[in-house]
Amino acid sequence: MRSARSTMSTSLVIIPTYDEAENVRPIVARTLAATDDSVHVLVVDDNSPDGTGDIADEIARETDRVHVMHRTVKDGLGGAYLAGFAWGLEHGYDKLVEMDADGSHHPEYLPWMLELADSNDLVLGSRWIKGGEVENWPWYRELLSRGGNLYTRMALGIAVRDATGGFRVFTSSAFERIDLAGVASKGYCFQVDLCWRALEAGLRVVETPITFTEREFGVSKMSGNIVRESLTLVTKWGIDRRLREVRSVIKNHRRLPSVRKNAHAVADQSA
Q1: What's the DSSP call for residue 4?
Q2: SS3 for 253?
Q3: Which residues form the Glycosyltransferase 2-like domain (predicted)?
């Protein structure tokens, strides 16, 4: 793992990779071009057999704004992000960004999303609010995503339209109120897990529309196991929330704090 060369940067874009040799250089280049020198990139590579980590090392030798973490164990998207968060917090970054390596998330949205993080704890790039859209997705993928988010809203009682999206900005202070040590989900349900923890902690959460573009190169990591994990965990969290609500009403004669009031949506910067 390369260490940070400077503590001046305030934002860190964390890009997990596994077999993204065709994508890592283009996405890093776009990220650097879309942002100024206050934004760094951390590539978290899970020992990719296709040489992604070596390419990332080459990029890091070319610019001080790129750093690389090499992990020897592949334990899911959540594990990679948790390692990246820990690294970013240790090195003093003020904002930490989640972004995919495959180009589905457009780095050109970053300046606006980082600006929104000045007045919010968590900024979600949303496909399913007004102005958001997806490109090159088959109908069943869109149905799965919309249906999964609808079920999540109903099960958890939240207002967030795209809790499963993976393009987001956290402030470092948000992690002081989110129990990262308790995060058990490793797959894509990790995204719902963190959003749910932020809302339960009373953090200010904002959604802003993005265009999501299906990857051009490589293979999607989505699977049936990921869907089953998400349904199981979301159902469990929803039941647990309702049981705690009942206990609070019986014992304290009051409901739990709302998980809806601090979430809102905003237009994109060009609107």
Answers
A1: P
A2: coil
A3: 13-178
What confidence tens digit (pLDDT) does each residue in 1-40 have?
Answer: 444 444 445 999 999 999 999 999 999 999 999 999 999 9
pTM across the whole model: 0.91
Gyration radius of the chain over CA positions: 18
Burial of 31 (0-12, 13-18, 19+ CB in 10 A): buried
Category of 130 on φ-ψ map: left (φ > 0), alpha (ψ -120 to 50) or beta: beta
For residues 210 and 132, the answer to whether their CB atoms sit within 8 Å is yes
Torsion on CA atoms 120, 122, 128, 130, rounded to nearest 10: 10
- The answer for residues whose C-beta is within 8 angstroms of residue 235's C-beta and 6 or more apart is 155
Rounded CA separation 128/146 (Å): 8
**Which residue in the block uniquely carries the two structure tokens 């939240």?**
158
CB distance 10 to 95 below 8 Å: yes
Tell me the pLDDT band of 216, cut-offs 50, 70 and 90. Answer: low
Q: What is the pLDDT of residue 221?
A: 53
Tell me the average pLDDT of the chain.
Answer: 91
Beta strands 11-17 and 39-45 are parallel
77, 193 Cβ separation under 8 angstroms? no
